[in-house]
């Protein structure tokens, strides 16, 4: 043990893990820590590979589905630090999602037959692509429980659109995108009638159906075009996952299936359950669709309208030669196209093999009309053996496959064996295996779904954690495990508990491809990506009644809410509109109002609204929920609701403290001293090339705004002093000082940034 510790200490010091200035002291300290905590050399190496020093950033960002939370989880790799939850299908108060009028409008897009649905089961996120490369512009996510697709704009990590599938009642095979994000695919899971009427299960074979929907995406507007989207009708097999072709196979999509037996359970009536009837056949079907030709059929009007949606029927699909079936291993759960588009890998949960299909062989069979037969619905079936490139025994319960940056190397999740298998799909041989903890579902390599996988890391998304973390009750977190795949052998580096929903799949992108906003244009409606009609400039705050609605046009800035007092009458509809005037990065304000379920998140520049009925007389405090300044707690106000019929009265407020000239003079002296400090900081900044640093330019803009506010408060203070109203003169002098403090704080942040980032002096 001592020898091992000594080696580990030497390695750690060589890697810069010393904990004190002197090498000997560092070794002594590190050795003691390792001994006390029972750490090994392997532990130290894993720590070195995952550690991101304070103030530094991760190389990759992962977007994980949030399962039943209906959200997206964002975390960094290799640190595995959770950075954000993105609200998608469910309200989320920290972001004000589902609480302000703008985000409610997005959630309302997801109503099912007019009913509000406040949960979702997110499964498969997909990043937008250009020429098969992740471009970092948009993220798509599906809702399995209530067939919907959401669009998240990665310019601000906000959900902008939700579309409801008009013919599906369950789905799983989404979201995946074409190489240029022309379309987003969504495939059914459990067959159901396309109509909204009751259809008995006795008519399952004839009237229950599956489908694949191709949602047309407008890359310029960042929105799905529902009227330009269409579906292809499929048999009542349980369709599962999907993928689009790449390069040589671009123009085709692949969707696998299970329960092609078309069995209907009924255990409550003494029938064998679904799991028995859906696992009798040796194979199921991989659906292969020529989506580019299908799009041409849609444009030519060769569709049938169902619930107002265009559907290419199976008869038309067969007649036009766009739909084919290929036998695949029993109960498959993944279909993954290789980066060059030449191969499609499918693994069956009830098999031990992964099957590698050759697109070249498949296409040749289709072109020569060499079919092995037809299914009961007349769809051509290709011969399994003639379609295969190879089959490899990878383990018990194989599910999903991800690609490495190394040619022909892939990784497959092995559910039953709780392993990841690394193998060569060109030569058909296993290269390595690693045990994970426990029962892996999906797995993810860096940019592994693109035409240029990055390799380096793999994340195993495990369904069970069991004994890996501190016990927190019967409901355990899931476990995402980080694995180093840079060498010949895989190495487990890190366990990450994920305590939100049941994450299913994740995608990772190089962090430097993401260029999110750090602020909005002042008065911006971020959900609609346009200037809000309720945009409010400082000094233009007002309360007015229009068409029976009392509109409050307010602003938020450190450290006050304007207006600070809102008075309305019982029964009035009130619509609050607040604009965050901050220009500094990370200066978000919140707004919470007692009893009325109003909780807003207002990022710099954003305008948000909240509409409600003031249905009970009373006093309702409101305040800023985001700690934004030293006087955050003073950022408050009151909504006063008068009883109906009571007239508003104006009464003098009783002051707690009355200020005299001495107080005024003292405050003014403080302000003048503060201004001298500000002037010195301004001189430092303007004496350097600050315009070359975008963050500093934004800070300077914000500081300038604060100084303009300070000048306005200074004038008011001096006007009151001229009237010898020392009380109001002192209070406005204090407000003048508050703006100075904010300006100084911003200026010092800018000064520090310039000092740390190599700014140089400029000649005046």
Give a brief outline of the structure:
The protein is an alpha+beta fold. It starts with a helix and ends in an 8-residue tail after the last helix.
Describe the structure.
There is one protein chain. The protein has 764 residues and is an alpha+beta fold. It is 22% helix and 35% strand. It contains 13 helices and 44 strands. The strands form eleven sheets. Strands 8-9-10-11-16-15 form a six-stranded mixed sheet. Strands 35, 36, 37, 39 and 42 form a five-stranded mixed sheet that branches. Strands 38-44-43-40-41 form a five-stranded mixed sheet, with no helix packed on it. Strand 24 and strand 25 form a beta hairpin. Helix 12 (694-722) packs antiparallel against helix 13. The protein is globular and about 100 Å long. The termini are far apart. Residues 1-22 have low confidence and may be disordered.
